[in-house]
Design goal:
Elements (H helix, E strand, L loop, with lengths): L18 E7 L2 E8 L7 E3 H6 L14 E2 L5 E2 L3 E9 L6 E10 L7 E3 L1 H6 L3 E3 L4 E5 L5 E5 L2 H13 L44 E5 L8 E5 L4 H13 L41 H16 L15 E5 L5 E5 L2 H6 L3
Parallel strand pairs: 2-8, 3-7
Antiparallel strand pairs: 1-2, 1-6, 3-8, 4-5, 6-7, 9-10, 10-11, 12-13, 14-15
Length: 336
């Protein structure tokens, strides 16, 4: 089983969202579960643990710290083993999972790290927001994450600056021998988000950066003090020349500052790919994109190039086309 174009249908691109799932933990649905391959432990955060109605006395003490990516350390409240199920019915996979319980505010209820991913024989693609795992029947199975839930967690973290999710880095150690299937974790997620990304606070108004030039505007809040508002508008208009409203207004970087060159092996023979034929629909999309790049001075015509590659057209979920370039041959010829 592989990841395919069908896996990213319905996903809003471009995105940098993590994989967030809803899992069955101890026979209860738990939302806001982050799948994090960078974490070397499975974490259940303290607020989620308290709502599970498990006595703190049932935790097994641990004497090693958890180290975050910022270098900060903290000691877990303890460890506990809980049953976890991915998927349903014939696609289910049941595992007994060791969790560390950490008392820190977080936008997630649970972090699933490398130990779980390895035990489930799983492969994670954050690009597709999908995970492939082996079911109880030893069949490769896919589970899709929620982009809306991922962005809701992002919003929650922004609204509360103290909410930091720590990437865990510690030696995997044995925790308590315990199994429990009668917990009452009933939908921890009670914080639905209405917007996918942070929005402005309060009312806003549109102002002209250059009076009389239509389209060259910006937006500011209306709830600021009059004096501050006047100074802000004056400042924006004074530096209106630093704003760009189209690609052809971007002057680029002086080659004396930085310039790109092909760093290919000298003994490698250059490759000129044979021209590929495209459908009428793709040709129209290619022509439009090339005209846009020419107008922005991002590209220019070139006779007898050393390297020549075809473009690759990828259809977006919106139905439009993304134009990429096949640099496979060139990448192979360049030192890593």
């Amino acid at each position: 089983m592989i990841f395919s174009e069908a896996d990213y249908r319905g996903i809003i691109f471009p995105h940098d969202d993590p994989l967030v799932l809803a899992l069955d933990i101890a026979n209860s649905d738990v939302n806001r579960v982050l799948i994090d391959g960078g974490s070397s432990a499975n974490i259940i955060f303290w607020e989620a643990f308290k709502q599970s109605h498990i006595s703190e006395e049932e935790l097994t003490r641990v004497n090693y710290p958890v180290v975050g990516f910022s270098g900060s350390t903290m000691y877990p409240k303890g460890s506990i083993r809980l049953p976890v199920r991915i998927g349903d019915r014939s696609e289910a996979r049941d595992l007994m999972v060791d969790f560390l319980s950490i008392k820190v505010s977080a936008a997630y209820n649970v972090i699933i790290g490398c130990p779980f991913i390895h035990d489930a024989q799983a492969i994670v693609s954050t690009y597709h927001l999908t995970m492939i795992y082996m079911s109880n029947l030893e069949r490769p199975t896919k589970i899709r994450g929620s982009q809306e839930a991922a962005r809701s967690c992002y919003l929650t973290a922004l609204k509360t600056p103290s909410m930091i999710v720590h990437e865990v880095n510690l030696a995997r150690e044995a925790s308590a021998k315990r199994g429990r299937a009668d917990l009452n974790m009933k939908h921890f997620d009670e914080r639905p988000a209405t917007t996918p990304r942070p929005s402005t606070y309060g009312l806003t108004e549109e102002i002209e950066l250059e009076v009389g030039r239509q389209g060259r505007t910006d937006v500011i809040g209306t709830e600021t003090e009059v004096g501050m508002r006047v100074n802000l508008i004056g400042l924006l208009r004074e530096h209106a020349d630093v704003f760009s409203f189209s690609a052809n207004e971007v002057s680029g970087i002086d080659p004396n500052v930085i310039v790109h060159r092909l760093n290919a092996y000298k003994n490698v023979r250059s490759v000129r790919q044979k021209k590929q034929n495209f459908s009428i629909e793709k040709m129209a999309a290619i022509q439009e994109e090339v005209e846009n790049l020419l107008a922005a001075d991002f590209i220019e015509p070139c006779d007898y190039p050393e390297w020549l590659a075809n473009v690759v057209m990828v259809k977006k979920p919106s139905g439009s086309w993304r134009m990429c370039v096949d640099f496979t041959n060139l990448i192979r010829a360049c030192p890593k």
